[in-house]
Amino acid sequence: MDWKYKVFEQEKAPGNDFYSAYALTNFQEFWAESVELFFERPAQLQIVYPDLYKIMVVVLNQDPLHS
Fold it and tell me: How many domains does the chain have?
């Protein structure tokens, strides 16, 4: 599975509720909510999905937890 879809698919599993139901309707909405979480709840995102957080630090060229 492509890394970018890993968390998207994981979050769809029963019991996972970090993302909203709307974010799981398609990958574009998932990515939009990921960016929102990255800036609004970075500590929680890092705890729940540390690999995604690391990737977003690189992609967005910033780290809200260490700025």
Answer: 1
